[in-house]
Amino acid sequence: MKIEDLLQEKEVCVISPKGGSMLPLIRPELDTVLIRRASGSIRRGDIVLYHNSRGYVLHRVLDDLGELLLICGDNQTQPEYVEKSAVIAVVEGLYRKERLLSVRHPALRMYAAFWGNHPQLRKPVLWFRRNLRRMKSRFCTC
Q1: Residue of 67, 98, 127, 132 with fewest CB within 10 Å of its CB?
Q2: Residue 43 belongs to a domain with what CATH number?
């Protein structure tokens, strides 16, 4: 059954993301995500599920441009434009070790605001994060 069909029946459902585009917030194969059928306004900072030629994608909204949204994964540096009509659902929360974390939690809202409002920091932060293990093994004699 397609996600769209599930959301038509129940309005909310839980999915298990597979890719790493929303790391470190959403960990593939470890976290599950509570989504709600998209209805009403989509705001900057929301994480949305949409469908494109590659399949289902879960990314964060960086800006609302009328009929288009500027969207990017937290673990990516290249944003893309998505039509609002392609958005299927909005993330309400994520389950981490069976504990529900609401996307409205102050810590997650601060993370979203910082990450979304400072795109110039993405490349160096992601580079540092990706290379941390290699740097540790090179410089640490532990």
Answers
A1: 98
A2: 2.10.109.10
